[in-house]
Amino acid sequence: MSGYFSYLLNGIKSLAIGLKITNKEFLTRPITLQYPHESVKMAPRYRGHIELLMDSETGTHTCISCGMCQKGCPSNCITVKSKKVPGVKGKVLTAYILDFTTCSLCGQCVENCKPAAIDFSNEYNLASTRKEDFVFDLLQKLHPEGVPEPKVDPALLKKEQEKIEAAAKAAAEKKEAAAKAATEKEGEGGEKAEGKS
Amino acid sequence: MTLLAQSQLQETFELNIGPQHPATHGVLRVKVIMDGEYIVKAEPVLGYIHRMHEKMGENRTWNQFWPNLGRLDYLSAIAYNHGYAGLLERAMGIEVPERAEYIRVITVELNRLQSHLLWFGAFILDLGGFTPLMYAFDEREQILDLLESVTGSRLTYCYFRFGGVYNDVDDDFITGTRAFIKRLRPQIPMYHDLVTKNVILMERLVDIGHISADMCRKYGATGPVLRGSGVNFDIRKNEPYSVYPELDFDVPVYHECDSMARYMVRMDEMEQSMRIIEQALDKMPDGPVKAEKAPKILKPPKGDYHFAVEAARGTFSMRTVSDATNTSYRMRLRSPTYSNLSLFEEASRGMLLSDALAFMGSLDLVIPEMDR
Ligand code: SF4
Ligand code: SF4
């Protein structure tokens, strides 16, 4: 019998202690944030999806389209598209497609990028019912009002044109020589040479 | 069925817990043969979220395997990062700058605190108490904010790199961590008042879920489960790595072997983690956070390498066989809760179902980690 009462007493005691703590907490200020009206300030290092960084000097990104980010990505979610533009050194980025649905936010791409053209953004308000909404063209995101034309270096353009002309000339000469040889040989062989050049 | 045939008088039935059940914390399925309210046999069924992490380790480059480490045990991902970093550093002989090692220890211990806080809340929730979860999550949120400010993520961390860490910590983090420790310390006695000394909790944990040290050895259980069975084993002390030897901390060991012992081990470990963090913050030197000479393209020399760390749930060890290429020939991950769960079948025989779920909670299971 005494066991029963001491057990009961213990129960009441622990209940009282528990209630004391709960009551104390009840009087403290709530810490809940009313989300749509207030939101948490993101830490500067928060890893959102990656983005191309704006270079204030050139007014555009510094990506050299080397493709190292694409190569190092464990989830294969980056596609770098580039083309050669006459008069511009190196390749010009035409599209930087990020499939954010498979990105694991590991940071390999950011680390692999030599010119530091990309970094994590602070974007976290991403929600959609469609998968395609998470495939971003980061180049478009950087320049929503249209991607500026790459700056053409006249000296380089001239040099390149000269090179092209020289190459064309060389090709023409070759063709001529081949044609000559073909007429000498006649028949099928000649046609083949023609086709090749 | 054989059991049914054997016992004509007593009727048994089969009960499925999971794969979607709040008490199994993930997609674990437990097939239980019950005799009334008592368990005759409980068989855990795994495989619902198998993702072939080991295989992925064999066809991704060493660097590309990083994000996988954050997705095994999502509650103590930084410790898993540490395991992988240590493995390759051992294989390649990379020297890690001291500051980086201290940052690693601080973040790992914060992560452990976070994991234990979540376990504490979820465990009490399993037992039917909702309020402690809210208190624990209040504290846990602070840790996540701190970790987010350095690592950029809140759960699936991918912060360590071979030879160091991704980026340095700032002064805000250091002052924030100190302030947080000051805040958490008085909370632990409050938890003890609110929860540990509660008679209902004691009724449900004391002398229930007995796991002997021999059973732990038999199944390879580690971590708080083993330490709650009276075995003093902690990789941080037994096979010291990183800067743990320079830090002064104790390994809590309880000899009661019941669910309460495992509960108390984790509660005491929180205090020890706080001690480690404080010391590490004091001792952290200035300097680089990444080894200068760490190569970009890794090709560890041919061989068989192994590295173990103490994660929040026990020993996590990695073993790799390298054939001197940029991918692993064989990657083996040994995760603690897989072994910790293995003993469930033997230990739960004859238990009441409600006790068995409390017992399962005391094992602190994380399903994605055992089901790799
Ligand atoms: S973002 Fe960087 S790594 Fe990727 S293609 Fe551009 S320059 Fe190369
Ligand atoms: S963060 Fe990782 S997964 Fe995401 S795009 Fe970069 S390399 Fe790929």
CATH architecture of chain B: Orthogonal Bundle
C-alpha-based Rg of chain A, rounded:
33 Å
Radius of gyration of chain B: 21 Å
Low-confidence stretches of chain A: 190-197
What is the CATH homology-level superfamily of chain B? Cytochrome-c3 Hydrogenase, chain B
Spatial shape of chain A: elongated
Distance between the termini of chain A: 110 Å
- Report the uncertain regions of chain B: none
CATH topology of chain B, by name, is Cytochrome-c3 Hydrogenase, chain B
Q: Sheet bearing the most strands of chain B, described?
A: 3 strands, antiparallel
- Mean pLDDT of chain A, rounded to whole units? 82
Second rung of CATH, namely the architecture of the domain at 50-142 in chain A:
2-Layer Sandwich
CATH C-level class of chain B is Mainly Alpha
Largest binding interface between chains: A-B, 26 and 31 residues
Number of strands of chain B: 8
Write the H/E string of chain B, N to C: HEEEHHHHHEEHHHHHHHEEEHHHH
Instruction: Give a short account of the largest sheet of chain A.
Output: 3 strands, antiparallel
- State the helical fraction of chain A: 40-55%
In DSSP terms, counting alpha (H) and pi (I) runs of 4 or more, how many helices of chain A? 6
Set out the fold topology.
The complex is a heterodimer of chains A (197) and B (372).
Chain A: H1 2-27, E1 50-52, H2 68-72, E2 78-83, E3 92-99, H3 108-112, E4 118-120, E5 135-137, H4 138-142, H5 154-185, H6 188-196
Helix pairs in contact in A: 5-6
Chain B: H1 2-6, E1 13-17, E2 29-35, E3 38-45, H2 53-59, H3 66-69, H4 77-92, H5 98-126, H6 131-151, E4 160-161, E5 164-165, H7 171-184, H8 187-196, H9 199-205, H10 213-219, H11 224-227, H12 235-238, H13 259-283, E6 303-311, E7 314-322, E8 328-334, H14 336-342, H15 344-347, H16 353-362, H17 367-370
Antiparallel strand pairs in B: 1-2, 2-3, 4-5, 6-7, 7-8
One iron/sulfur cluster is lined by residues 63-69, 80, 112-113, 115, 117-118 of chain A.
